[in-house]
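User: I'm preparing a small set of examples for a lab meeting where we compare how different chains pack in three dimensions. I only have the primary sequence for this one, and I'd like the structure in token form so I can line it up with the others. Please keep the answer compact; I'll paste it straight into my notes.
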Amino acid sequence: MLADASLTQSPLFLELSARWLIGSGIREAGGGMARYYLAAERRNKPVSTEITGYASSTFAFLAEETGEAEYRDAATGSAQFLVNEAWQDELRAFPFELPAPGDPALPPAYFFDCGIIVRGLLAVWRLTTDDGLLEAAVAAGRAMAEDFLTESAIHPVLSLPSKDVLPYDDARWSRKPGCYQLKSAMAWLDLERATGEETFGRYFDRALALALASHDSFLPGSDDIEKVMDRLHAYCYFLEGLLPVADRSEAGAVLESGIRRTASLLGQIAPQFSRSDVYAQLLRLRLYADAAGVLPLDQAAAEEAAAIPLFQREDPDPRINGGFYFGQRDGRLLPFVNPVSTAFCLQALFQWRQYQAGEFQPVTEALI
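Assistant: Understood. Below is the structure token output for the 368-residue chain.
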């Protein structure tokens, strides 16, 4: 059975989830973050550069909100791992994972991962003012445009070291161009704000035009409810990418209708299958859209806030205690404790409490 929602009644959910991220073993000694923890098998999946990018953003957010040096140190460690270990300087690329020991072959590079990494580096740069992190983010942001961006599409995956475009896969949204890529294109907008280079803003505007032209066909995308839920997660990435430009009429209108559409599909599917990150993404979208005057908050936001803690567990096993599970099927949690789910849920609930206290600040650069 799912846990009850009692954890949201106190700051305990924040302490537990933050402690899980920093001390459960999901973050490895070098600063890299594993993709998720397999609770049934009691082992981590390999370290992921994308997930380490999310970790950098999350620890920077925690450091800003709490002032705790431990989170600042964790943010710095994750960012340095990305710059010193993950970045392939000669190729100007981030592979999605490091090569396996003894295997010289590099895994491919994903556009989406690169944008998440750049945003993580910028989050830590804003926290520490370490110009080396800004330089790395700028180099990676330029490579994203040179390697992935075209007039008609953003290529999702490149082989390394050749940087050849890998064939699109119609069965997997992450292996073909789509509106979800706008979340990572936010890296260009953040770079423009950090550097004043208008070229980065033009890259984002091209990604925005591509996403707005294609988003209508993204949902539902399948007759399989689990695949639809997976696509809801990706569609929320698109909606998050609209937040910095919600004052533009078309973007604001699509953001409003997209939130309503996502909530409707989530409500239909959730009794059979749901993902914690979709609830968290939707709640964050509502908070930012309300602040932008796009869509006023209503009772649905409170219901989503109440649903999120049901994916978190207090547990005697420190590899589980405080982390958020990926999802549930027919009322039972799936055995994956997920760092990105934990980061999204942590931030959504924290911002929800800020909203209730009249303290929420809709800073899009801080969105994990």
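A couple of notes for your slides: The two ends are 29 Å apart (CA to CA). Residues 6-366 form a domain with the Glycosyltransferase fold (CATH 1.50.10.10).

User: Perfect, thanks.
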